[in-house]
Predict the structure of Hypoxanthine phosphoribosyltransferase.
Amino acid sequence: MHIKGRSLSLLIPEEKIKERVKELAKEIEKDLGENFVVVSLLKGSFVFTADLIREFSVPVKVDFMWVSSYGSSQESSGSVRILQDLSMDIKDQKVLLVDDILDTGYTLKKVVEFLREKEPSVLKVCVLLDKKERRKVELKADYVGFEVPDKFLVGYGLDWDEEGRNLRGIYAVD
Ligand code: 5GP
Ligand code: MG
């Protein structure tokens, strides 16, 4: 597999993701019960979110936010901007914030602070991937799919300059 002329190595195959997403959904449902709001960060987490919500056996609502962080295409920076806010009111609602990958932590820290001001009754954070060793700010996700090494990853929603989101597994760019 190639992208932009660089070869890709499979890190997490589709089947393993599927299995883990099921486990995460079970765990989340056990903690949150029913009628929680899934807040998904565009664009990277749309594939993960689509699979995760279909593993819930309880009613949930889904909303999206769009955030961007200044920096190079491969590294986020301290300044995170909210480009598109939620469409629904989450005051007194149980909220599950979903992102593709936790890297430095800048993005999720900012979004968590932003959402807390909206006074949800519960706010939990779920990420598919966690590059733990790269953390710059303190932020711990409540639910983590996989801990991953410090490599640039694509696939399953994650892009490299908008390419690679459609890959079924998660790949490291060599
Ligand atoms: P953080 O703010 O935690 O440094 O970065 C989180 C965001 O950076 C993720 O939502 C994702 O958009 C992007 N990111 C971090 N690492 C990777 C990676 O390995 N691959 C891709 N495609 N995006 C990444
Ligand atoms: Mg992202």
Q: What stands out?
A: Residues 41, 44, 99-100 surround magnesium ion (ligand 2) (CB under 6 Å). Residues 14-147 form a domain with the Rossmann fold fold (CATH 3.40.50.2020). The longest strand covers residues 60-69. The radius of gyration is 15 Å.
